[in-house]
Write a structure and sequence with these properties.
- The complex is a heterodimer of chains A (180) and B (228).
- Chain A is of the alpha/beta class and 180 residues long.
- Chain A has a single domain, classed as Rossmann fold (3-Layer(aba) Sandwich).
- Chain A is built from 6 helices and 5 strands.
- Chain A has a 5-stranded parallel beta sheet.
- In chain A, helix 3 links the parallel strand 2 and strand 3.
- The N and C termini of chain A lie far apart (50 Å).
- Chain B is α/β, with parallel strands linked by helices and 228 residues long.
- Helices cover 20% and strands 18% of the residues of chain B.
- Chain B is built from 5 helices and 7 strands.
- A 5-stranded mixed beta sheet of chain B has the order 1-2-5-4-3, covered by helices on one side. In chain B, strands 6-7 form a two-stranded parallel ribbon.
- The chains are: A alpha/beta (180), B alpha/beta (228).
- Chains A and B meet through helix 3, helix 4 and strand 5 of A and loops of B.
Amino acid sequence: MGEVKVLQTGEAGYGTTRFDSLLAWARKFSLFSYPFVTACCGMEFMSTACSRHDIAPFGAEAPRFSPRQADLLWVVGTVVQRQAPVLKRIYEQMADPKWVVAFGTCASVGGFYDNYTTVPGIDKVIPVDIYIPGCPPRPEAVLDGLILLQEKISNGNREPAIVPPRQLPGLVQIRKKETA
Amino acid sequence: MSQVVLDRLVAQFGERIIETTTFRGDEVAIIAPDAWVEVARFVKTDPACAMNHFSDMTAVDYPEREPEVPRFDVLVSVRSMVHKHRVRLKTRVEDGQNLPTLGVVWAGASWAEREIYDMFGIRFDGHPDLRRILLYEEFVGHPLRKDYPIDRTQPLIPYREGGLAGTKLPPFGQDEGQPWTRINWPARLKGVDTQVSPAIALQQGQRRALSESTAGEGDLEPEVEAEE
């Protein structure tokens, strides 16, 4: 890092960076999302996307209902075996680079549907970047997942990751009292 | 409530009504399979019954009562919008025994019959389009039969590498997931099963919380760590 100078009105200057970093910075703030919404988690997705929590500040507010125009696939809800080929085809139709978020417990590991009908986690069918636990996840957890994805985009990390639970001091206090 | 319907049925069909029961307003008539459509048409058209609303149709599998009693119960719940009463009609069929379709009486029954065929494999004679309605054509067997293995899945497309049914792909550990369903019963009966939810494991000191590992570094292996 060289000297950082804040330009005043009328002044001109330049900054240097690597091309990859610049591209990743642009990509992480222009995520065009394709919501693949199949179940009740969709309510929380709508809540996250709408004005109260709002994913617009993170550059992900533009839904694209064609996978060819999208680069972020939200898989929101339970995916049954019959839908699995559809999900895979949608994933294959998306142009690179593309990212996948498994929204909620069912999309991540199949949830409590341990039976003949449900895919035990969409990672059995397509690769997943971010898992958001919760049944359903709170909008805050979804935003955490989006921020985590942006971090991974900006440093080029394609390892899958789980959104960690928020450490709420009140809850920790209750837990300690119970175990004591 | 609808005892009048049962009385009408017994008066009209006699021996072919095998049994009628009443329990807290639930009237049930068990019907011989050969009278199935006749009884249905009668309860719909008879002015005292007037069962013009088809509510639901389903089946139940009782393999343990064979061979004295046929294995499957097929039952239809119907209601009268005129008299505000309802009744449940039941019949019993063997495995492989066909029933005549009720779609000629209540049109809505034809989809319910497709579901019964899908889930139990009971066939309906005269049905215009008896295909699976919920599952896919490639599915082998009928999953709501009691002898369908509880853990058999039939994926439509092959799973990714390492993605065998019941296993988990990274970053999930093999013992993670919903502990109240994916229980390794043989291990648990031997007392060596340690599968618990991450929150309980944290309390018991079996491993640290997922949140304490750095996301994305692949360092999410279960770890034994005593909590102070």
